[in-house]
Amino acid sequence: MEKHILVVEDDFDVRALVQTSLKRAGFRVTALANGAKVPATLSAGPVDLAVIDLNLPDADGLDLTRLIRERYKIGVIILSGRGEATDRIVGLEVGADDYLAKPFEPRELVARVRSVLRRMELTSANAPIEEERRAYSFDGWKLDSSALRLFDPKGDEVPLTTGEFKLLEALVTRAGRVLQRDQLLDLVSTNDAPAFDRSIDVRVRRLRRKLGDDSKLPKLIKTIRNGGYVFVAKVERA
Asked: Which domains, from first to last, does the chain contain?
């Protein structure tokens, strides 16, 4: 089944280039010039990945990315003329799977779309059976590896990106052990995953925010100076 890609880009020429490149690569593409119709488009049918421009006429691309992350489990690639490191980090912090600065090579965009989709499939429910039936509880929280879902102490689901889930799972299943950043990168990344400086730190900050864990007085994820991170809460198999 062909993958469905949503493109949100206000520049006509860029939108046409992205749409044509993805269609030629075998994807089904829906292209929008603004963010107004994004919620309706996502609700109307399955979308596998969204390519979002940051500078939209009616919406902030970061806010749109955050909204998508809160409501839908799809891949997100930010496309932007702002290529500075800080912009890239902010994009990752709000939940983007990848960030591509303009001008870009169409083949690179197609490659990154395929890379994000592959990583999503690798962490889907089609995991081996021995990996499917694991669930963990800690400090009232429940991490369900079989469904790739996290539930807070009230029983409400907390949306996580694929990268956030893999990082939390890596920490929880190795609770009490100090994990260096390069070790965590090996645990949460695949061979075709794009490498970003400070990507582990970015994911940890996002996780702490969603878990309500204060970095200064952590109850769950503790930073080890010049060492990495350690999950300090007691973990039980649920």
From this structure: 4-122 (3.40.50.2300), 129-237 (1.10.10.10)
